[in-house]
Predict the 3D structure of the following.
Amino acid sequence: MSRSVLVTGGNRGIGLAIARAFAQAGDKVAYTYRSGEPPAELTDLGCLAVRCDITDSEQVEQAYKEVEERHGPVEVLVANAGITKDQLLMRMSEEDFTSVIDTNLTGTFRVVKRANKGMLRARKGRVVLISSVVGLAGQAGQANYSASKAALVGFARSLARELGSRSITFNVVAPGFVDTDMTRDLPEETRDDLLSKIPLGRYAAVEEIAGVVRFLSSDEASYITGAVIPVDGGLGMGH
Ligand code: NDP
């Protein structure tokens, strides 16, 4: 069965791996990107690239219209786009805080709310939000990011209760340390410190996150909603 899947921030990193995994499984995949050229490998897999900045409701609306025209209403939404603006609290500007919240939390609200329209009509749907181990455990220098990722849990669980009777599931994936552009920006010292705390002793490959997202969107996961699934090599155990 080929479903209409939308992945935000699918042009690189974890989002690209998620888009690739759904496309390889035969789904109709659309993904958002903000600038530059859409990655050739996703074009070759037949994925639809839609330009969209999730901080802009108008662009979100336009993106959905384009996806709906080409693939039909979104049946599986993966809200993956996110940013960091790390800083110790004393040096964190209000803009550092609000811009991270606006992308990671309010941006997720914008895309989920718009997807909900079609899912309500279809009386089914799958929504997977990409949070982070630091949303549960906290991380010095990431109060803005951590707060935004923790908020996704309350957001997903509220919607799981609100929309469960319509067979729409809302789940959260909380990756640990994944080797992407986002983590390559971290200072060497922080990377080494994190690595020493991961029981599996290594970073995650993007495919290891994508596999769990696909599972949560599959028939096998039809009775899972409001769950937070850590994919962190054991880094966040106990939360
Ligand atoms: P990257 O920095 O590699 O990619 C981020 C993606 O989000 C890009 O596609 C980017 O688009 C997109 N994006 C950012 N802001 C916006 C916006 N305003 N509108 C639309 N798209 C936007 O990050 P990762 O792949 O590492 O992370 C993906 C998700 O996983 C994020 O939510 C992140 O917080 C989470 N995560 C990552 C971890 C890691 O270790 N890497 C660990 C835990 C969670 P563009 O290319 O245009 O900038």
Q: What stands out?
A: The chain has one domain: 4-175+207-231. Residues 94-122 form the longest helix (29 residues). The two ends are 36 Å apart (CA to CA).
